[in-house]
């Protein structure tokens, strides 16, 4: 007796579902793979400077771009407005390219406490806050190489727009680690704070004037930068007192003499010009007279031509 075959609908539907899932996974996975590894789609970066932050992010995402917002303070644009972007607008790039935009948040940027950090880590933290480093000075110490020993302005100080900072970094250990750092150009109070961090202090303070530097700025030091120095030794500094040098007022006699010199100089120049003009006119007049005399002189014409234009009768008069 033949056995009756029963169709298993449960297994059939399960197989169909598994097959559909595999097809979807293959298609989706292929698109993801192509988008990440063989991405050839291009887009143009829109210009979002001057736009509100939310509106700028919207436009950039609609263009297929990713956005990184950097908060900063500026007086060029209103609050929450984009004042700079990178890469530049109009550039053609691949989709999913990260575009950085700088947004005015109206908040003062403060110097972070990076003392004790390694230089690479400190750079990363400063870059994240859009703070630029102006100078890096190295100072031998017992700290690990490339460790931040000091920062100017000191941590917590509010930075002005586009103001940069200077940092002091531990260098490799030397035979004599006590070397005077270069603090010229620093504010007196900030220099005192920086020297305190490495065991030095400011002693005598002299003043002078330098109109190219801000008031209270250190102009020179004793010992000079790079000189060996004992820990705890006091440093003498010369600072800019900002006093303006008054110009000496000229006396009435000086003013009169100066005016007379100008008058004499003008008269001399005028006399020279008049003399040159008279000489030119005289040369021109003499030249015209010479030409006229040559044209009216018959003897000159006969001499020059070798023949006489006088009538023959004149010879008889001469004989008589």
TrEMBL record:
Disordered as annotated region, ranges: 276-320
Source domain of life: Bacteria
InterPro entries for the chain: PASTA_dom (IPR005543)
Keywords: Membrane, Transmembrane, Transmembrane helix
Residue ranges, compositional bias (Low complexity): 282-309
PROSITE patterns, per database record: PASTA
Chain ranges passing through the membrane: 12-33
Gene3D superfamilies reported for this sequence: 3.30.10.20
Signal sequence residues: none
A Pfam entry, by short name: PASTA
Record domain PASTA: where: 39-104, 105-171, 176-241
Listed name of the protein: PASTA domain-containing protein
């Amino acid at each position: 007796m033949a056995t009756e075959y029963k169709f298993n609908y449960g297994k059939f539907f399960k197989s169909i579902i598994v097959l559909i899932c595999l097809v979807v996974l293959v298609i989706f996975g292929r698109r993801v793979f192509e988008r990440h590894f063989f991405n050839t789609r291009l887009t143009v970066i829109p210009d979002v400077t001057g736009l509100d932050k939310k509106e700028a992010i919207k436009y950039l995402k609609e263009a297929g771009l990713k956005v990184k917002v950097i908060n900063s303070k500026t007086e060029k644009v209103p609050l929450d407005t984009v004042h700079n972007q990178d890469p530049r607008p109009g550039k053609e790039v691949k989709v999913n390219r990260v575009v950085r935009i700088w947004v005015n948040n109206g908040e003062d940027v403060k110097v972070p406490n990076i003392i004790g950090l390694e230089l690479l880590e400190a750079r990363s933290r400063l870059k994240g806050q859009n703070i630029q480093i102006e100078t890096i000075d190295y100072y031998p110490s017992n700290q690990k190489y490339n460790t931040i020993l000091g920062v100017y302005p000191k941590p917590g100080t509010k930075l002005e727009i586009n103001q940069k900072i200077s940092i002091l970094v531990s260098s490799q250990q030397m035979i004599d680690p006590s070397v005077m750092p270069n603090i010229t150009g620093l504010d007196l109070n900030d220099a005192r704070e920086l020297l305190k961090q490495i065991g030095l202090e400011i002693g005598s303070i002299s003043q002078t004037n330098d109109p190219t530097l801000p008031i209270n700025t250190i102009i020179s030091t004793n010992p000079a930068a790079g000189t060996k120095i004992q820990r705890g030794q006091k440093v003498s500094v010369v600072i800019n007192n900002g006093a303006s040098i008054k110009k000496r007022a000229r006396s009435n006699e000086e003013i009169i003499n100066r005016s007379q010199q100008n008058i004499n100089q003008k008269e001399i120049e005028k006399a020279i010009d008049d003399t040159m003009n008279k000489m030119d006119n005289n040369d021109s007049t003499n030249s015209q007279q010479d030409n006229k005399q040559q044209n009216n002189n018959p003897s000159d014409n006969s001499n020059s031509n070798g023949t006489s234009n006088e009538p023959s009768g004149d010879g008889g008069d001469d004989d008589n």
